[in-house]
Structure formats: structure tokens, C-alpha cells
């Protein structure tokens, strides 16, 4: 089932990708907007609740700002909060993130389970990045937050890692941009490579559901109408968007 939730001010909410920690709006407004999105996800039966610990999120955000080397990122403050909150609510024991670049997108998910903002224990949070240099930087960044190794980044093709993953996977995060031919269309290949190992009620999060919708059309048709996912909602809280699907 295809659903959409949209923030009213989405056309005017813009970030500078080279200045990811800049405050874009009053904190109360950011919290209200993300709460509204979480409420829509709960109403659609995609999330079981909407509560997350805001103080722990603040701690997570501060640690990332202080310890991560981020050359650029398109993860807006709203998206950072939404990803953390979804993970804090769903509490995946095993999370797989595909295409993590410098690791900011990965830790926005894994930060609910590891590091100073953690609110639950996970078994395994695995980030995959195909470029070895970027994977090494992401791994350095993650180590600066999580000394335990529960969260880690490997240099590999996410399709291969998804195919070989033992499962069950409780949350799959998709952000890989493939090659010149596939682009973000690679999301579908990654999802199909591990679909049979998604746990019941697993969440699949796809970044760029708005600004890459054309490139993602086969993926979006699959999660919205393909029958493999119970429900799917396009959460348009910034210009990138996040498609949130539940198995
Ligand atoms: C656009 S970046 C994601 C950035 C993220 N949205 C952010 O704002 O921080 C996509 C990343 O996916 C990686 N990538 C592309 N194809 C991949 C694949 N098959 N497996 C793993 N990573 C891949 C690229 O090297 C790139 O670092």
C-alpha cells in the first residue's frame, strides 16, 4: 500500500551539505515535525510507537558533531533525528546499511544502539561502502563513537553482503548509488538479495525517495505494490525523503 506523509514547509527546508551541523530551524519545530512523521508511521501500522529518548538523541548528535569527519552529507537534522528515532523505536538486533559513504548516515541509524546516545543493545550493526577509502574513513568515524565493534563498516559491494548475510535482518537501510548504469536503482537488487532473510516486521528504509524518485521507480513500485512488504510510506520531511517499508 502506497502512503505519503509530507511536511508543509518541505520546499523551504534546505541544508548546506558541507555544513551539516548548522541549525536550520528552532529545535522545537524539528522535534514537532519528526513527531508528526512518527505519528503517521504509527497510524499506518509501520511503527509500533512514537516514543524515543530525546536527551539520548541530543547526546548522540553532539558526539557525531564532535568526533566525526564529515566532508559532506545530505542527511538533514530532521532526517538524522528521524533515523535515530525509528531505530530507537524498532530496536533492530541486526541492522544492515548499504552505501554509507563517510558513515554519517550509518551512525544516524546505529547510534540508537551504540555509543553515548545508545538506548538499547544490538547484536550487529553492519555498514557497507564500496569505496575502500570511504569505508576506512567511515570505520574510523564509527570507532570514535563505538569502541565495542557492535557497529562496524566494511569495504564491499552491498549486493554481495546482502546475498551472503546469515540473517535475520531487522532493519535494512538503503543509500548506495550504484554505478553509472544502475544509480540508486541498485536499492532493488540489494533488497531482493536479502528479502528472504528479513525478519517479520523488519523495516526497510530508503533514502532519496523524493529527489531520486525517477531512478527509484522500480524499487518504489516493488515496496509499494509488489506484495512483499505489508505497508510502505514516503516520509517527505526534507527534499531527499525516506521511504519506510515494513515486511
Ligand atoms: C550518495 S552516497 C550516500 C551519502 C549519504 N546519503 C549521506 O548524505 O551522507 C552513496 C554511497 O554509496 C556507495 N556505493 C555505491 N554503490 C555501492 C554498492 N554497490 N555497495 C556499497 N556501497 C555503494 C558510494 O560509494 C557512496 O559512498
Describe the protein's architecture and organization:
There is one protein chain. By secondary structure, this protein is α/β, with parallel strands linked by helices. The chain is 36% helix and 19% strand. The chain has an eight-stranded mixed beta sheet, sandwiched between helices. The mean pLDDT is 96. The structure holds S-adenosylmethionine. S-adenosylmethionine binds next to α4, β3 and α6.
Shape: globular
Sketch the topology as an H/E string, one letter per element: EHHHEHEHEHEHEHEE
Alpha carbon gap, first and last residue = 12 Å
- Round the mean pLDDT to the nearest integer and report it: 96
What would you say the CATH architecture is?
A: 3-Layer(aba) Sandwich
Give the cofactors and ligands. S-adenosylmethionine
Major beta sheet, strand line-up: 1-7-8-6-5-2-3-4
DSSP, total strands = 8
CATH topology: Rossmann fold
Uncertain segments are none
Helical region count?
8
CATH superfamily: Vaccinia Virus protein VP39
- Portion of residues in beta strands equals 15-25%
Return Rg in Å.
16 Å
Category by helix and strand content: alpha/beta
Helix content: 25-40%
CATH class category: Alpha Beta
How would you summarize what this structure contains?
The protein is of the alpha/beta class and 247 residues long. The chain has eight helices and eight strands; from the N terminus they run E-H-H-H-E-H-E-H-E-H-E-H-E-H-E-E. Helices cover 36% and strands 19% of the residues.
Provide tags for this entry.
alpha/beta; Rossmann fold; single chain; 8 helices; 8 strands; eight-stranded mixed β-sheet; binds S-adenosylmethionine
